[in-house]
Specification:
This protein has helices spanning 2-40, 43-63, 67-76, 81-110, 115-142, 146-169, 175-200, 211-245, 248-263, 266-282, 290-322, 332-339, 341-357, 361-408, 420-439, 443-460, 468-475. The protein is an all-alpha fold. Helix 9 (248-263) crosses helix 12 (332-339). The longest helix is centred in the last third of the chain and has 48 residues, at 361-408.
């Protein structure tokens, strides 16, 4: 038994390390892409590209019908990988081709008249290829083959980042050339995913219609389908609304701030894929290890609040320096509001993973409907008056509402107080930031000051404890 626990501990640490490396590489490449586009293109072109990407991201997420997460769960629970992969692969091919066929048919009416539709049609080719690659990534996730996922996930960004940097060096960065690079990167990722999965997973890839299996998977995913519909609209509704109702230039500014905000969630992105299979197995046992779950939340809140603190302190001096003043100072308020969402997102992901592992999909659907309604209503009311800051506040409000709903739906008594570290850690970060700015005016003196203030405040509020090192080692023994 001791050897088995040691093997599990070693595997978890290895998987986490691989996932962290993959995410760091991907985020750096994504940041490189974003930086080249934001500084090399005018704000209008940059905003149009982001609007198109927001639309396509929402559509392809909806077309998954929520099956992607269900595929991970079923494979992690021991279902036949080849069969599940085949069913989802057929679904992806059919739904993707139908969507793009309709999009292409629409070009008869819009292609020559609307520049935005032309971008949608062209960039859509690449995103269709990415959509076709998702079954292989989800199957690898369910198998906990994180090294394989790492290789699959970086190739497109590597091609795009390299290509755009070359274009930038050659001073040939045009919208036309950017589109070519995007499509090439996405096609290469699909081919790479198929090749790597076939070579590394030792699982037969088949394209065979299984009506009964597809119906069962669809029915199991049905509550999750509603969640996907809501989250897809929620994820980029603000981008789309700003792009159509305000301007592409304001969208360029908001999307830049939001992209950096997304990159700041790197720790969450690192741990989230590991939690689904682990929580699925954990909740199949009688001992849910509530004490360790509470410790996990506390550590997540410390990391989230500290990330938000650093984001605010470094934002204006760093971003204005690297973008020649295009996206720094103008986004200070937007970034502050978005940074307040970080601890809330961590807690929501933790609670969502528990409920997903418990199979409470209808409740999750209800939570996302509520969240979506709050976000959309907030966007409609606030964006026309407060523009980007209004969109950020609407997102924060929707996240808080979702947290409250999740907490009220909890069935584990020991976890009812998991919201307390969120409040305490956020207050510690806010106090550290305010005091540091009051004491110093130089940004590079403020940075060490917030660190020297934040962590003592955590110890004083019992969010950090001397025994945490032992608890952390125990957590890795899952």
């Amino acid at each position: 038994m001791v050897d088995e626990w040691q093997d599990m501990k070693k595997k978890l640490i290895q998987n986490l390390s691989i996932n962290v490396v993959q995410l760091i590489v991907n985020q750096l490449l994504g940041l490189g892409i974003f930086y080249v586009l934001s500084t090399g293109l005018d704000k209008n072109s940059f905003g149009q590209i982001n609007l198109v990407l927001a639309i396509l991201l929402s559509v392809f997420n909806i077309l998954s019908f929520g099956m992607d997460q269900m595929v991970v769960k079923k494979i992690a629970a021991g279902s036949d990988t080849s069969s599940v992969l085949s069913i989802y692969l057929v679904h992806v091919l059919i739904s993707g081709l139908i969507f793009y066929g309709l999009l292409f048919a629409g070009s008869v009416f819009f292609h020559n008249k609307n520049e935005l539709y032309s971008l949608l049609l062209l960039i859509g080719i690449g995103k269709l290829m990415i959509f076709f690659s998702t079954p292989f990534k989800q199957a690898a996730n369910g198998l906990e083959r994180f090294r394989l996922i790492a290789y699959m996930s970086v190739i497109s960004n590597l091609v795009r980042c390299s290509g755009l940097i070359i274009l930038g060096v050659l001073h040939d960065l045009s919208l036309h050339n950017v589109i070519i690079i995007f499509i090439a990167g996405d096609v290469i990722e699909l081919l790479f995913c198929v090749f790597l999965f076939y070579r590394s997973a030792n699982i037969k890839i088949t394209l065979k219609w299984n009506g009964a299996g597809y119906k069962n998977l669809l029915l199991e995913s049905l509550p999750q389908t509603g969640v996907v519909l809501i989250t897809s609209a929620l994820a980029r509704f603000d981008w789309i609304f700003i792009g159509f109702m305000v301007s592409a230039i304001k969208l360029a500014e908001y999307s830049f701030a939001y992209k950096i905000f997304e990159i700041s969630t790197l720790p969450l992105l690192a741990i989230a894929p590991l939690l689904i299979p682990r929580f699925t197995k954990l909740f199949q046992t009688e001992d849910i290890r509530a004490g360790e779950l509470k410790f996990l939340v506390r550590i997540e809140m410390i990391v989230a609040a500290f990330t938000g603190l650093l984001l605010n302190i470094c934002w204006s001096p760093v971003i204005d320096a690297v973008t020649a003043g295009k996206y720094g100072l103008i986004n200070v308020k937007t970034v502050f509001i978005l940074s307040l969402c970080l601890p809330v997102l961590y807690l929501n992901n933790f609670l969502w993973t528990i409920y997903f592992a418990q199979g409470r999909l209808k409740m999750i659907l209800a939570s996302f409907i509520l969240t979506f309604m709050v976000n959309v209503l907030g966007d409609i009311l606030l964006i026309p008056f407060f523009k980007n800051e209004g969109a950020a506040f609407a997102f924060l409000a929707s996240c808080i509402v979702q947290t409250i709903y999740y907490l009220k739906q909890g069935t584990i008594p020991e976890l009812r107080s998991v919201w307390l570290p969120l409040i305490v850690c956020t207050l510690c970060a806010l106090i550290s930031g305010v005091l540091s700015r009051a004491l110093f005016h130089n940004s590079w003196l403020i940075l060490p000051a917030v660190i020297l203030l934040y962590f003592p405040l955590l110890f004083a509020s019992a969010q950090l404890r001397r025994s945490d090192s032992k608890a952390l080692k125990k957590l890795f023994s899952w």
